[in-house]
Amino acid sequence: MSMVYVNMFLAFIMSLMGLLMYRSHLMSSLLCLEGMMLSLFIMMTVTILNNHFTLASMTPIILLVFAACEAALGLSLLVMVSNTYGTDYVQNLNLLQC
Amino acid sequence: MNLFASFMLTSMFMLLLPIIMSNTQLYKNNLYPHYVKTTISYAFAISMIPAMMFVSSGQETIVSNWHWLSIQTLKLSLSFKLDYFSIIFIPVALFVTWSIMEFSMWYMHTDPYINRFFKYLLMFLITMMILVTANNLFQLFIGWEGVGVMSFLLIGWWYGRADANTAALQAILYNRIGDVGFITAMAWFLANMNAWDFQQIFITQHKNLNIPLLGLLLAATGKSAQFGLHPWLPSAMEGPTPVSALLHSSTMVVAGVFLLIRFHPLMEQNKTMQTLTLCLGAITTLFTAICALTQNDIKKIVAFSTSSQLGLMIVTIGINQPYLAFLHICTHAFFKAMLFMCSGSIIHSLNDEQDIRKMGGLYKPMPFTTSSLIIGSLALTGMPFLTGFYSKDLIIETANTSYTNAWALSVTLIATSLTAAYSTRIMFFALLGQPRFNSLSPINENNPHLINSIKRLLVGSIFAGYLISHNIPPTTIPQMTMPHYLKLTALAMTITGFILALELNLAAKNLKFKYPSNLFKFSNLLGYFPTVMHRLPSTMSLTMSQKSASMLLDMIWLESVLPKSISHFQMKMSTIVSNQKGLVKLYFLSFMITLTLSLLLLSFHE
């Protein structure tokens, strides 16, 4: 396939690596989640525009909406953890049974 | 073409003049009370002329003035019915009001708002006149509500006192419950007879008149403080004594009885209604007489006496004698107003002392008040040939010789003896014996306003019964022949009451009062009626509505059933079911290892 697609696919893989391998902050995994969503969005838009899939033009917008929802959900979970422990270190989830 | 209607309407219109003048300078100077009093005395004099005309010729008039509006087929106009009842009641009411106005010129002399007091009293009188002369139910309702509102304003005259505000509110609420009955009757008449005029109502034949008559009975119960809606009358004694004398003895509380008297053509045919009225009046008169026996406030005793006499009037309507009830209304006004004025004189002289346990020995310092109090009490109990005799004795005789409910009759007789008992109690505690009041209060009854007003009502208390009953046109014929023991029943009961009360008071005068018996507590706390009925229904209904609206609907259905129960369930379940240890990094790493492994394996698969 062409270089553009490989480039964007690589960006997706990078963000996935970042999501699955993080050290202490929960926030970094959420940021990588956003990065995944971004690369998916760009890939989808470029494919549709290049192949003239006109009827599928609404899918990037729908993807954006769902990405926003999940970002909000993730942030609320982060806020809950941060409220109980003061920080968003992942090791907190193992600390106390609440 | 004589001037009958003109004189009557002139007399009514004269009462409006001081109200109209209240926007001018006249209202601001201190001659306004004198002006109001003179206006009422002239209105009384002028209204005597149509009364004389009626007495001599029996002429009745209906004046229909101004067509107000027509609602489809109902025509509402301003119409005055000047018949037997209104023509005789108006001079009596104006005479009593004249005396009360003069009395309140002495009683309320130091009040800075005395002009407003007189204006309120005059407005009350005007609405009472509207009520009495109304020819259609709508005008009567205007007068009815008007007297209720003025009663509220006057009871709460000293509005800084919390008890006065409570009493005024109580009066309005109890009257409102009666108004429901009144409006039911009006609605029924509108729907079934298409009229609010008395003439059309009395002519139209109808089979079952129970519903409107029940509504009117409820209205009379509310306005005339019959049993069930009676606590507002003793509480209304929070107002100044002239207010008690005018409203709550002579004029306003007889509005309910007057309404039933007006509808006597309808009540004549309905035996059920008559029995209900009879029993209601009987229980009222006995209950309030029992309550009056152990009260300690002189105004409350007289208020209960009024309530008892109102019950007697309702009993009279119940034995189908509306004209006798009306005669009792007119005669009762004289001596009851005088009793209130005498107690006002005592209260003022003893520096606002209303407790009879703190009065005593007033027959030497206040001879005039003493004699008028005694004459008023004698007239109240029906001593032969004073005023009360002509109406009260006739009522008892007619009740004894009529085919009626024996229980109601015996209860009325017991209440008659109790009337004598509590009258003796007032006289014994307030007038006789040694003084129990503070010795520094200046006892003075030398004011001409006080003396003249009480003197006028005194003459009325002695002679008015004779004058009225010998000058009115004959209506229902009283029973002429009866056995001698029935004829003497009322007198015997009264003398029994007097002697018993006097003996008991003298015997127990210096005994120590240890523990009140149950009967005493029942009588002193008004039969526990206000204690129970003012607290229990309101607490229950408020609690029930709070529980159902707030707890049931809001907190349970809208909050707990779905949202809170789901979240609670989920949290519980997740803590029970999950056995994870929160090692998030390891779990994410396992995703990545799976991905890499699958990528490597699948890419090298052929």
From TrEMBL, chain A:
Provide the primary localization: mitochondrion
Reply yes or no: does the keyword NAD apply. yes
Q: Where in the cell is it found?
A: Mitochondrion inner membrane
What membrane topology does the UniProt entry give?
Multi-pass membrane protein
Q: What is its EC number?
A: 7.1.1.2
Q: Name one GO molecular function term.
A: oxidoreductase activity, acting on NAD(P)H
Q: Which reaction does it catalyse?
A: a ubiquinone + NADH + 5 H(+)(in) = a ubiquinol + NAD(+) + 4 H(+)(out)
Q: What class of enzyme is it?
A: translocase
The organism's place on the tree of life at top rank:
Eukaryota
Q: Which GO terms describe its biological process?
A: ATP synthesis coupled electron transport
One Pfam family, short name please?
Oxidored_q2
Spell out the GO cellular component terms annotated for this protein, sorted alphabetically and separated by semicolons. Answer: mitochondrial inner membrane; respiratory chain complex I
Which parts of the chain span the membrane according to its record? 6-22, 29-49, 61-81
Q: Which UniProt keywords apply?
A: Electron transport, Membrane, Mitochondrion, Mitochondrion inner membrane, NAD, Respiratory chain, Translocase, Transmembrane, Transmembrane helix, Transport, Ubiquinone
Please give the subunit comment from the record: Core subunit of respiratory chain NADH dehydrogenase (Complex I) which is composed of 45 different subunits.
Family according to the record: Belongs to the complex I subunit 4L family.
> What job does the chain carry out?
Core subunit of the mitochondrial membrane respiratory chain NADH dehydrogenase (Complex I) which catalyzes electron transfer from NADH through the respiratory chain, using ubiquinone as an electron acceptor. Part of the enzyme membrane arm which is embedded in the lipid bilayer and involved in proton translocation.
Query: What name goes with this protein?
Result: NADH-ubiquinone oxidoreductase chain 4L
Instruction: Report the source organism.
Output: Panthera leo (Lion)
Q: Which gene encodes it?
A: ND4L
Automatic annotation (TrEMBL), chain B:
The GO terms describing molecular function are: NADH dehydrogenase (ubiquinone) activity; NADH dehydrogenase activity
The record describes its membrane topology as: Multi-pass membrane protein
The UniProt entry lists the main location of this chain as mitochondrion
| Superkingdom field | Eukaryota
Q: What is its EC number?
A: 7.1.1.2
Keyword Transmembrane on this protein?
Answer: yes
Pfam families the record matches: NADH5_C, Proton_antipo_M, Proton_antipo_N
What residues does the NADH-Ubiquinone oxidoreductase (complex I) chain 5 N-terminal domain cover?
68-118
Q: Which GO terms describe its cellular component?
A: mitochondrial inner membrane
- Its EC top class is translocase
Q: Which residues form the NADH:quinone oxidoreductase/Mrp antiporter transmembrane domain?
A: 134-416
Q: Does the keyword Mitochondrion apply?
A: yes
Q: Which UniProt keywords apply?
A: Electron transport, Membrane, Mitochondrion, Mitochondrion inner membrane, NAD, Respiratory chain, Translocase, Transmembrane, Transmembrane helix, Transport, Ubiquinone
Q: Could you list the residue ranges that cross the membrane?
A: 6-27, 39-58, 84-105, 117-134, 140-160, 172-191, 245-263, 275-294, 301-319, 325-347, 368-386, 406-432, 484-507, 586-604
Biological processes per GO annotation: ATP synthesis coupled electron transport; electron transport coupled proton transport
Q: Which reaction(s) does its UniProt entry say it catalyses?
A: a ubiquinone + NADH + 5 H(+)(in) = a ubiquinol + NAD(+) + 4 H(+)(out)
Location(s), subcellular? Mitochondrion inner membrane
Give residue ranges for domain NADH dehydrogenase subunit 5 C-terminal.
Answer: 422-601
Protein task: Core subunit of the mitochondrial membrane respiratory chain NADH dehydrogenase (Complex I) which catalyzes electron transfer from NADH through the respiratory chain, using ubiquinone as an electron acceptor. Essential for the catalytic activity and assembly of complex I.
Which family does the record assign?
Belongs to the complex I subunit 5 family.
Protein name per its UniProtKB record: NADH-ubiquinone oxidoreductase chain 5
Q: Give the organism the record lists.
A: Panthera leo
What gene does the UniProt entry assign to this protein?
ND5
